[in-house]
């Protein structure tokens, strides 16, 4: 019976072990050991289960895994195989034990991970106000409404011949007006009922 060797495994032995497991499976460790010729069946089994199994993860431990490992190590002290089974075979008992020792020796690793997971919300860029929102924020002030001219317009058939003639005549400038015209403009117009027969006769003759 071969004694269990304490020397480390070489790259060539690992390669031969993988080839032997592919040929004989994981239930014939003595046949695997005979294929290697340098290790016992127990050594081959331990090496395969702890390091070479395809399901074993060798990547960095995540924050979730570290938290789970700390919790399980408190509930199940030193029961590394049972703890490893809680990781669905992705972590071995040896890797769980080594990771636990690392966390105990490096407590700042835990605080750094927890600090990096807490993200601070950065303020975004200032919000731009659209032209519609800007126009709605103030009202344009307007002046008082202008009064409409309430004087009724004179219909065309109601205009007198003198008024029609006046509209056709171009307006004179102030300096072109004669003294008689200026005096006439100052005189208020007489209503139709206030006109004398002689004045009416004169207007009719002018038309």
Automatic annotation (TrEMBL):
Residues 107-207 are annotated as: Disordered. This is Pre-mRNA-splicing factor cef1-like. Gene3D superfamilies: Homeodomain-like (1.10.10.60). Residues 108-120, 129-143 have a biased composition (Polar residues). Residues 147-207 have a biased composition (Basic and acidic residues). It is found in: Nucleus. Belongs to the CEF1 family. The gene is LOC103324708. Its main location: nucleus. Keywords: DNA-binding, mRNA processing, mRNA splicing, Nucleus, Repeat, Spliceosome. Residues 1-56 form the HTH myb-type domain. Residues 1-52, 53-104 form the Myb-like domain. The lineage of its organism: Eukaryota, Viridiplantae, Streptophyta, Embryophyta, Tracheophyta. InterPro entries: CDC5L/Cef1, Homeodomain-like_sf, Myb_dom, SANT/Myb. Signal peptide: none annotated.
